Amino acid sequence: MTTQQRSSRQAVVTNQAADKQRSNFFTHALLILSSLLVSCVGIAAEAQALPVRQAYQQSQTPNLSPQSVEMLQVEAEIWHRINQHRQRHGLSPLRVNEQLTQAARAYSKQMADYNFYSHTGVRGDTPRQRVEAQGVSAQLVGENLFQFPQRGNPVTVAVQGWMGSAGHRRNILMSQMAETGIGIWKQNGTYYVTQLLVQPRATTVTTPDRPLN
């Protein structure tokens, strides 16, 4: 089996009117970042990476810490690259939502821990249920997944893989989407990447797209 064949990716999108919308944004977790930086090597590379990571963290007070400084940077870079693609298509950048980041990171960890790959969790939960469990009420919910063995730059592999797939690309370039959370976990040389995207509750109902898998 080739490396390309070993890579997997999935996308899904659902729609539902919600009672209320929470999109509170918090200050970034300086204590979490400080503790992680103790084990960091490559000071010059870290200094170069800080602006994107700080922008990504500015609205976060994580409950589940990033697996490492490296994984935090990968999460931030994927967010940055996805917004570059949106802006090239005349779309507004996606805002980081701390609750979505928590849901995405926890789900990537769950897939890594239980060695599975699916939009349905080990307890039978759906993407919308995972989003709502974090207190996020949204009209439109999308989820992109990516699983691949360690090779090359994980940011490039994930983003290019998603943009090369009709379902993932549609989720990323959907104009209604306004907020996102990205979570990554690595285990036994395999990356598990989850991206959640939401359209906040609106006064007008958007016709749902057919779920993509």
Automatic annotation (TrEMBL):
Residues 80-195 form the SCP domain. Keywords: Membrane, Transmembrane, Transmembrane helix. The chain crosses the membrane at residues 25-45. The keyword Zinc-finger does not apply. It holds the Pfam family CAP. CDD domains: CAP_bacterial (cd05379). It comes from the Bacteria. This is SCP domain-containing protein. It comes from Acaryochloris thomasi RCC1774.
